[in-house]
């Protein structure tokens, strides 16, 4: 997953405070700092990257031979930064290496440090694509997160999209609050997944008795056409609409999806599924709109209650899918015309939107394996 850190050094505390609080409000919770650690700790709960003892991630190189100010040894394997990183790693600490790329030698040092550090922060005075491409290529098989230091949205977009994968993250050194918000929106857009929804024909609608069903209350408001991908089969999930519509029976609850029974799958970020019974406060699920666009959404509460259930079966191109839902007027799927259809009105021949997955699932992850579901 792509991510952003923020560093706001060399400015007044009032300005730094504004930048950091804006970052936290925008979902950026990793702060790189060296001079105001105690004050920053009072602003919220976040991850601190620094060279101080109380840091969550230890930073190496900013004031040493990796910052472009000192001569790098001819044999870069003798780098003091490399020795420091190895020492911290032996103590069980997470380490971020910091390297200013001002020469080919610094590029080589970065590639070396990236083989040991957990994170590699790359700082360029005037970024061009080529040095970044070289380092990404040299470390593509290493277990290190590459981070490019950037000053604005344009540089962030370049870094995150270089080569096929781009860097894993960026460290934003903003000059203006607006850049923080724009970069946060960029990260959200890049991380947003899209699912190709298909219109499946309903072949069966049948009450089946009672069971334990799950309501998922999120920390976000869902609009018309939004819901969650839920189903009994991993090979295909139904788009279950949120309770964002008004009803003569109950008030609108646009934060809620009355999702299905405890055994059902629900789609979560990273194209993974989880059982509805596993979801709890603080977890993340995907909300999906009628075009298949998604957002990662935090779960605020889950309610499991015994309710009457209804079986819905649908077919698309020879693939038969089934799911169980609460048998109530307020529970809706999404039709081919992108309009919500209550299960109380659903009938054979109707078309509802589903997501078909060619992969099987093992512990919620897509795998290339044949599994029969019925």
Global structural class = alpha/beta
| CATH fold field value of the largest domain | TIM Barrel
Largest beta-sheet details = 10 strands, antiparallel
Mean pLDDT: 88
**Multimeric status of the protein:** single chain
What is the percent of helical residues? 10-25%
- What are the segments in which pLDDT stays under 50 over at least 5 consecutive residues? 64-70, 360-364
CA radius of gyration: 25 Å
GO biological process, one term: aromatic amino acid family biosynthetic process
Function: Catalyzes the oxidative deamination and cyclization of 2-amino-3,7-dideoxy-D-threo-hept-6-ulosonic acid (ADH) to yield 3-dehydroquinate (DHQ), which is fed into the canonical shikimic pathway of aromatic amino acid biosynthesis.
GO molecular function: 3-dehydroquinate synthase activity; dehydroquinate synthase activity; NAD binding
Catalytic activity: 2-amino-2,3,7-trideoxy-D-lyxo-hept-6-ulosonate + NAD(+) + H2O = 3-dehydroquinate + NH4(+) + NADH + H(+)
